[in-house]
Amino acid sequence: MKVKQGYSYHIKDCFFSVVSDPFLMSNKENENYRPHYYAIEDSNNKDIFWMIPISSKV
User: Are 37 and 51 in contact (CB under 8 A)?
Assistant: First the structure.
């Protein structure tokens, strides 16, 4: 898959199984769908994208 800057993405379920980080947004918490992430290309390395969580909760 080609990641493009400015688009919204879902991260696969298997990522949350492999990466156990208490500071990540929870996957499918309380019967909700997995969180959305906004992709931003790293200015120093075009092969790296930062995935910023998007939430309707404040």
Answer: yes
